[in-house]
Structures are given as structure tokens and as C-alpha cells.
Design brief:
Structural class: alpha/beta
Largest sheet: 8 strands, parallel
Number of strands: 8
Strand order of the largest sheet: 1-2-3-4-5-6-7-8
Number of domains: 2
Strand content: 5-15%
Distance between the termini: 77 Å
CATH topology of the largest domain: TIM Barrel
Radius of gyration: 24 Å
Length: 364
């Protein structure tokens, strides 16, 4: 009896092993996520070395949400000021400002947004510029332009609105007149336009999120949309622009440097592209040192547990540590080990220079 029981147990163990081995053999790239066996110094960075300004955040419910919960998370990260880019306009914006001003007036800055649905109607340009001016007088600190401009926004005749459409010129000119920055997101990573094949670095992202895939006709080539943005920057040299996501050139820092050299009114934010910087630490460090006055910290999505990866890339010299989204970047990160004077500019000084009315006493 005991012999039979032992035999049954052995057979069961062999069967389980074979099944598990078969599962491993059948595992696809999506599931493969190995734990590194590399033994190197580890310096997790749960909070930023210096108090920082996040110039790229989205809080759509700021009019009614309990801001103390945000403040708690911000304090744990050492975040001094959150810039909410999703302020809207008119009454909605004023409701957000009321909640902020009554509770934490120095910890949040709100950017206004423009409604492009009426482009083409007589007098739209003047009305839009007037509304923006009213929003700024109410307390908005800047203007945020979503990627829908250039991708989805259409005029009253159903035509795509180009980023450099002359009908929008009064908006950009008004921002220069008011002394407020424009944080603009144009297009998406170029890989979204590239063929969806084994050579595409964003293959997993596009496979799991197929709606992000685009083509030259959906709605225009990547190069065309980016060129529209650059022409608009050059056309309005008195307006200060913050190019979100490093203008999608974080993977080509040489080209990005050329663009910065040619457009002195353009700065860049690092939201959602830390994975590009973390895989080229030597080149990225040189870039940050050279353009230290033109780079701003920003995260994009508000997920406090993801911020430490940003801090670790910027502050440490750690090697080969994981990124937090495999579908976004399947490679490991390396630290840039930036000098303190550069970190301070990226974390808060550059934002203080660009965004009017922020409380400088929160920093140092």
C-alpha cells in the first residue's frame, strides 16, 4: 500500500513538472518577464532629492476632489507643486481654481484648454483669444494643447486642423502677450506609424492596444504633424513652448539638440519618455548638462508608485534596473547620476522661470 502511494506521488510530481514545462515552452513574449540575476549596487529612490515641480499632470476632478489626499502623496514624493494641465475653461476652470485657492493655493497650478470645435466660424479666433485671456485673469498659469490638435480636431467643414493653421495664430500670440507658456503634445511616438512587425520596438504595446496604431493616412504622416508643430514654434518666437515628451525625439538626442538650437523659445518635458533616457545614460547625461536650462520634470499619468523610477534614472548611477511597464519598454534602466545643479534646474528652477506666479518659497 505504501509502495503504491509513493508511486502515485512520484507520477503526480512528474506530471506536474511536465505540465509546467509545457506551459513554459508555450509561453509567449507577452508573459516572459524574467527576474534579473545580476548582482550590482541597488539604490531605490522613493522620493526626489530636491523638491520638484511636476509640469505634466492630469486631474480631471480637481473641482470636487479631496486635495488633501493628493497632498499626502505629493509630500511623500517630495513634490512641491503639481501642474494640472486639464483645467478646461470658463466655469469648469473657475471651479477647480476655487477648490485649490480655498485649500492649497500654493501647491497646485492649473493650465487652461482651448475648445477647437468652432474653428472656421466667423470670429472664432477673437473669441477664443478673449476666453483664454479671461481664463488667465481667473488664475490659469498656462495653456495645455492636447494631441487631438493635429490628430483628431476638425474645423466646421470637417477638415483636419493643422497645428500651424493660421486661424490659430491669435491663440499663440495671446499666450506670448500674457507671458504664459504653452505645453503642447503633438502626435505620438513615431513607432506608432511604423510597420507593425518584428522590428517595431513598440510591437507589444500596439498589439495589446491596437487603437494606437496609425498610418500615413490616419490622419497624416508623423513627419508632417511634427513639422507643423515646429513651423508654429518658429512663427511665434515671443511665445514660450514646452514640448511634451521631448517632442518624441528622446530616442534621437542629437536631432533634439539641433531643434533646441534652432528654436530658442522651445523647452522640453520628460513625461512618459524616461525609458528612452534610461537606456542611453552616457548620451542622456551629456544632453542634460548641455541643455540644462531647457528641460523640465514631468510625469504625465498620476501614479505615485511610478515616480521613483524617474528619480532613480535622474539621480543615481545604478545599472540595469527594471522599468515599470514592460509593454512600453522591455529593456532595463541605467542611472544618469546628474549633478545637483542640473537636477535642481530640471526639478524646479526651469519651471519657476517659465510658469508665472508659482510660490518660490517652497524650494530651498
Amino acid at each position: 500500500m505504501k509502495h503504491n502511494m509513493k508511486r502515485i506521488i512520484v507520477i503526480a510530481l512528474i506530471t506536474m513538472t511536465c505540465v509546467n514545462f509545457g506551459l513554459a515552452q508555450d509561453m509567449g513574449f507577452e508573459e516572459y518577464n524574467p527576474t534579473s540575476t545580476l548582482v550590482v549596487p541597488q539604490n531605490p529612490t522613493p522620493k526626489a532629492k530636491f523638491t520638484f515641480i511636476d509640469v505634466h499632470s492630469h486631474q480631471f476632478r480637481m473641482a470636487e476632489q479631496d486635495l488633501s489626499l493628493l497632498i499626502k502623496d505629493m509630500d511623500q514624493l517630495n513634490e512641491g507643486i503639481m501642474v494640472n494641465l486639464s483645467g478646461g475653461s470658463g466655469e469648469g476652470l473657475r471651479a477647480m481654481l476655487k477648490n485649490v485657492n480655498e485649500n492649497y493655493p500654493n501647491r497646485f497650478a492649473i493650465f487652461a484648454n482651448v475648445d477647437f470645435s468652432g474653428v472656421g466660424n466667423p470670429g472664432w479666433e477673437e473669441k477664443a483669444a478673449q476666453q483664454l485671456e479671461a481664463d488667465v485673469k481667473a488664475g490659469a498659469k498656462g495653456l495645455k494643447i492636447y494631441k487631438s490638435l493635429g490628430l483628431r480636431n476638425k474645423d466646421i467643414n470637417g477638415n483636419r486642423i493643422a497645428i500651424d493653421d493660421p486661424r490659430l495664430d491669435p491663440i499663440w500670440a495671446k499666450c506670448g502677450e500674457l507671458g504664459i507658456p504653452v505645453l503642447i503634445h503633438a502626435a505620438d511616438p513615431k513607432s506608432f506609424w511604423d510597420p507593425l512587425d518584428s522590428k517595431n520596438e513598440r510591437w507589444l504595446e500596439l498589439k495589446t492596444r491596437p487603437r494606437r496604431k496609425r498610418s500615413a493616412a490616419d490622419p497624416a504622416p508623423w513627419e508632417q504633424i511634427i513639422a507643423e508643430q515646429h513651423r508654429m514654434f518658429k512663427k511665434h518666437p515671443k511665445t514660450k513652448f514646452i514640448n511634451a515628451h521631448m517632442g518624441w525625439y528622446a530616442n534621437d538626442l542629437k536631432r533634439l539638440g539641433e531643434l533646441l538650437d534652432g528654436m530658442p523659445n522651445m523647452s522640453v518635458g520628460i513625461g512618459a519618455i524616461i525609458a528612452e533616457l534610461g537606456r542611453q545614460p552616457k548620451q542622456a547625461k551629456k544632453f542634460f548638462i548641455k541643455y540644462q536650462d531647457r528641460i523640465l520634470f514631468g510625469k504625465d499619468s498620476w501614479k505615485p508608485d511610478e515616480f521613483p523610477t524617474y528619480f532613480r534614472v535622474l539621480e543615481t548611477s545604478d545599472e540595469y534596473f527594471p522599468y515599470y511597464k514592460k509593454y512600453h519598454a522591455f529593456w532595463a534602466m541605467y542611472g544618469l547620476d546628474l549633478p545637483d545643479d542640473v537636477l535642481k534646474k530640471v526639478y524646479y528652477k526651469n519651471a519657476l522661470n517659465l510658469i508665472p506666479g508659482l510660490d518660490k518659497s517652497l524650494f530651498e
